[in-house]
Design a protein that fits this description.
With 311 residues, the chain is of the alpha+beta class. The chain has 2 domains: 181 residues, Regulatory protein AraC (Jelly Rolls, Sandwich), CATH 2.60.120.280; 107 residues, Arc Repressor Mutant, subunit A, CATH 1.10.10.60. 46% of the residues lie in helices and 19% in strands. The strands form 2 sheets. A 6-stranded antiparallel beta sheet has the order 1-2-9-4-7-10. Helix 3 packs antiparallel against helix 4. The protein is globular and about 55 Å long. The relative contact order is 0.11.
Length: 311
């Protein structure tokens, strides 16, 4: 106690909530209802769910998804990734996946920060900060779970705090904080795993180019031999590297892209199942319906009706 301190008064100020708690409180205030909020910061969105959710399917984009409260389960083909408070899911390439919130209540809702980035941004930070990641020659999985440490959480706190600033200020200052977040990820225990696919793509040994090639031609007939030639790989090497990164083969990847796009067309309205099937490259409507049901669990129009009812 200081000499001028009154007897019985607190010797120190009350303890501040931990970083995750502060961020959760801020996100809960900014997003008081379940759903997704696109913030003034172009690369940052917030998600909230007050109860466990059904399995939903989509395409994961290059990003870092940090859970502040609750738990989520992500399926990459046959691989399952579980993560919870203080952990993040890092994604380095576009990946078809499914996921669900598995732990959330109205009192403690699931809260998540979704930070999107481009592979070029990762490469730039590595080059400018001269980070040595001991590049390997083998591809690694395009998504993985890691834990946030104090320095990464502090950078995330600064990003969340910007959401209370004027939009112009938030957008300007967020650029530097994003670079710091990428730096913290790269210098953490999973840095090489995050950067490896970027390195391989720069050296024409990566799967990013194959994915981009398939995305441009998702509605066209594609032969594996063409894709291998376009990416300077043998067919066997392409299969090995593609499955190592995405957990699935190139043709399965293209099929999932087609079906995801068909689902988006149907949800937007004005398109029937036969038209959607043709637009995404199917010649047989029965094959389209069969594969759609296998992926989404219901025939096309029944699935869309169910989704609209849920919304």
């Amino acid at each position: 106690m200081h000499a001028d301190q009154a007897p019985g008064s607190a010797a120190e100020p009350p303890a501040q909530p931990d970083r995750l708690g502060r961020m959760a409180a801020a996100v809960g205030r900014l997003l008081p209802h379940d759903g997704r909020l696109e913030t003034a910061v172009p690369f940052l969105s917030l998600l909230r769910a007050s109860q466990p959710t059904p399995v939903t399917r989509g395409v994961l984009k290059p990003s870092c998804c940090v859970i502040l409260q609750g738990n989520k389960r992500v399926h990459l083909a046959s691989e399952v990734l579980d993560y919870g408070p203080g952990q993040y899911l890092a994604v380095s390439v576009d990946l078809p996946a499914s996921g669900q919130v598995v732990n959330a209540t109205p009192a403690l809702p699931y809260l998540l920060l979704n930070i999107e980035f481009e592979p070029a941004e990762i490469a730039a930070v590595v080059a400018e900060a001269r980070i040595d990641l001991n590049d390997g020659a083998q591809p690694v999985r395009g998504a993985f779970v890691g834990s946030t440490d104090a320095s990464l959480q502090e950078a995330l706190c600064k990003l969340v705090a910007l959401l209370d600033a004027p939009p112009q200020e938030a957008v300007f200052l967020a650029v530097g904080i994003k670079r710091e977040i990428i730096y913290r990820l790269l210098t953490g225990p999973h840095g090489r795993q995050l950067y490896q696919n970027v390195v391989l793509d720069q050296q024409d040994r990566g799967i990013g180019k194959a994915i981009a090639w398939l995305k441009e031609r998702y509605n066209q007939p594609v032969r594996v031999e063409e894709l291998a030639q376009a990416t300077n790989m043998s067919v066997s090497t392409l299969h090995h590297r593609f499955k190592a990164v995405t957990t699935m083969g190139p043709m399965q990847y293209q099929k999932q892209l087609r079906l995801q796009q068909a689902r988006a067309l149907l949800l937007n309205g004005g398109t029937d199942a036969a038209t959607a099937a043709y637009q995404v490259g199917y010649e047989s409507q029965s094959q389209f319906s069969r594969e759609y049901r296998r992926l989404f669990g219901a025939p096309p129009m029944q699935d869309v009706k169910r989704l609209r009812a849920a919304v």
